[in-house]
Every structure is written in C-alpha cells, then in structure tokens.
Write a structure and sequence with these properties.
about 200 residues, Glutathione S-transferase Yfyf (Class Pi), Chain A, domain 2, four-stranded mixed sheet, 4 strands
Length: about 200
C-alpha cells in the first residue's frame, strides 16, 4: 500500500499509527499542502479533493479521508469493536473528532505554527478556536472520567483519531493540565502496543 501524506499532519498520523499497530507494510509518500503539492494535477488526478491522507491499495484503488481510512484498516481487528453499541460509540467519536475537535484544536495549532497560515491568525479566529477547542477537551474529559477509552474498555480507532491532534494541542495554546482525565488517557494510548510517534513514517 501507498500512503500519501504529510509528516506534520495529525490527520495523516492517524493511519500511520494504526498501520504501525497492525504491522501493515506501506510506502509513505510525502505530499505537502504547504508547498501546493496536493493541488498539482498529478495528485488531483488521484484525489480530486486535493487533500491528504490518501491511501492507495495494492490493487490500485484509493481511499481518502483519515477516519474512513481508519475504518477500512480496522475492519476485523481489535480496533473496531465487535459489540454493536460500542461500534456505534466509535463512530460517534469519529464524527465528534471531525466536527467538534479537529476544526478548532488542529486549526489553532496550524494558525500558530504554519507560516503560510499566519495571515489568518486574527485575534477573533484565535479566540474562537480556543473557546471551541476547550469545549471539545471538556467534553472528552467528562467522558474519560468514567471510561478508560472512548468506545468501551479497549483502545479503538476512536482513540487513535482523537489522540492525533490532542497530544499536540499545547502547540496550539491549549493547557492540557486543565483536563487531567485527558492527560491520563494520553498516557494509556501511548502505552498501548505498537505505539509510534507522529514523526514515524514506516
């Protein structure tokens, strides 16, 4: 398999982390949106949405969107619960991550750390992303006060999806020590077999 992505992207880290845990061989191809590579014709021909990550299967078929890739790779593994309700919880938290978490925690980090996003880092945008990101962390903290993981008693793709940008949230100005249950969860995720850092490229 080929994974097109960016080493500094949490969305691209998600499938890399899961593939590491599953022991799946893949070739990483760096395609950066910072330099416009994702908008070049040859990549757009692969993914018309001009975004990474993009997974190319051994038979040439392709799959985009980080959480869709997680669902595909997790099928039949310990990372997608067998129990119908717990599987529903995994889906719930995947949607939460993309709608209520990533647009604020990941975006605020990008505004503060990517030079090409600096012009978008208005005081209003920074304040809004901080407020909404803290709301997402509060929701997570409440859940984790009574549950070790997000979709049952074991780590799942819901945890992988939420870990990707939460573990670097302080780079976006979020104070994780205000969310002790989240901090403890981060440690549990990192203690799980096969964990690799965001810089790992296979």
């Amino acid at each position: 398999m080929i994974l097109y992505g960016m080493v500094d992207s949490g969305n691209c880290y998600k499938p890399r982390l899961l593939m590491a845990k599953l022991g799946l061989a893949f070739r990483n191809v760096e395609v950066s949106s910072h330099t416009g590579e994702t908008r070049k014709a040859d990549f757009v021909a692969k993914n018309p949405n001009a975004m990474v990550p993009l997974l190319e299967l051994d038979d040439g078929r392709r799959l985009a969107e980080s959480n869709a890739i997680l669902l595909y790779l997790a099928e039949g593994t310990r990372f997608l619960p067998d129990d119908k309700y717990e599987r529903g919880l995994a889906y719930q938290w995947l949607f939460f991550e993309q709608y209520s978490h990533e647009p604020y925690i990941a975006v605020r980090k990008a505004l503060l750390t990517f030079p090409e996003r600096a012009r978008d880092a208005t005081p209003e945008r920074l304040a809004a992303t901080l407020e909404r990101g803290n709301k997402a962390l509060s929701v997570m903290n409440r859940q984790l006060e009574t549950s070790a993981f997000f979709a049952g008693k074991a780590l799942s793709i819901a945890d992988i999806a939420l870990y990707a940008y939460t573990h670097t949230a302080e780079q976006g100005g979020f104070q994780l020590d205000a969310y002790p249950a989240v901090v403890e969860w981060l440690r549990r995720v990192e203690a799980d077999d096969g964990h690799v850092p965001i810089e790992w490229l296979g």
